[in-house]
């Protein structure tokens, strides 16, 4: 276990960041599932805007890889356009 003050603070801050990152990642995955299940095109288009924004935010913060965000956005856009 860490003994230095700075190491103890780092442990606390890392845990707080980990919890927030997990929350954001999980809520984005849930939104993606909701979008995939959508059948109404107008509702899906509105949801696509929100999901794209969430994915961009996750990629910007390096929670997910930027290419994964781009691939997800592309697939979801194709899905919405096919509705």
Automatic annotation (TrEMBL):
GO terms for biological process: translation. Keywords: Ribonucleoprotein, Ribosomal protein, RNA-binding, rRNA-binding. Signal peptide: none annotated. Transmembrane segments: none annotated. InterPro entries: Ribosomal_bS20, Ribosomal_bS20_sf. Binds directly to 16S ribosomal RNA. Belongs to the bacterial ribosomal protein bS20 family. This is Small ribosomal subunit protein bS20. It comes from Hymenobacter montanus.
